[in-house]
């Protein structure tokens, strides 16, 4: 499948591995793919994000991804659902961090004591994003998988990245519209 990835899409995958290594995570997660997309400049995905106003909010998006990681990967909607059951995730995180340090509930931070060497595999969620990117490219009748397909796939897949993007007005529909308009302008 990777032979169908454009240079930009491959750079995103490599960037995601870098973000996973930096976080000392055992696996590359969908959040790492989004972080790598936020790093890109001059690509179709970066154009779409800028057109939708995320360019000036990249730090906020990164912060929200970090907040979710501190909540052990729970999305804001999952946190709110638990609150409806009387479970205050913010209070739980505060107590755990008070006893064990900041980031103690984060999967990457739980393993800080371990040394990690070798290849990082992709989590099931990250693999789903890559597979969905292929399906998106095929549905759009594109020959290659670009970073824009990875972004569209993240917006389609339920989870923290899609929720954070949606909080900033980035949905599959808005991305499709911006990308289609951009393609129409470049063809004119």
From TrEMBL:
It holds the Pfam family Clp_N. Keywords: Repeat. It comes from the Bacteria. PROSITE patterns: CLP_R (PS51903). SUPFAM superfamilies: Double Clp-N motif (SSF81923). Residues 2-185 form the Clp R domain. This is Clp R domain-containing protein. It comes from Streptomyces coelicolor (strain ATCC BAA-471 / A3(2) / M145).
